[in-house]
Amino acid sequence: MCWCPLGMPCQSPDNFQVDTGNLTVIGPLLYHQKTCVSSQVCEFDGYFGQGLLTSDRITVLDTCGTTFTLARLPNNALSTIHFNLGNSVSWGPLRATSPGGQYRLCWCAATTRCSSPTDYVVDSGELHMLGPSLFQMLQCYPGVVCTFDTFLGYGLQNGETIMALEQCGVGEGVVGFPNGAISNGATQNGRRYGWADGSNGTHFL
Fold first, then answer.
1. Helix, strand and coil percent figures for the chain, each rounded to 5
2. Residue 142: is the preceding peptide bond cis (ω within 30°)?
3. What is the rounded CA–CA span in Å between residue 91 and residue 61?
4. CA proximity to 96, closest of 163, 167, 44, 42
5. pLDDT digits (tens, 9 = 90+) for 1-23
6. pTM for this structure?
């Protein structure tokens, strides 16, 4: 901290000659780049900063300081566990089922009010949530091979699969789909899916 007395111009660095000590700014480093995968517990290491506490919290927003939180991230998108001196962050133990996309990691110090998403004004970087878009409306028809190449998402990969279920995560595959209703591995960078190889026994019935 460099001091300038009353009566001096105090408009440029050369007017501030007296070194009075250090000012420590508590908070995370900026420009973090972190990745989570939808359907898995969202957690990561390497969240660095100065004086971080295990009682600090992060929420995931479209823009820091606003009210739009990432849907389907556990605990209303508010981090649940900070450990390793605040360098490791988790939204566990529940798994995320959020839409794929790019979002902001918004930090709030434990020593301040953190009761609303609007309190999380410190943008500490980007979260890449790998996964599909939600609320997609795709169609297949009885008696023909079921394929489509318009599946949307962020960071999708070849080899990923879809299962046709009445409710995701429970029950059995929808009757009539081949392979227990589990699709072939995706192609075309995760955009093309199908439940058949074209032979007589693998059509959607």
1. 5, 30, 65
2. no
3. 14
4. 42
5. 999 999 999 999 999 999 999 99
6. 0.91
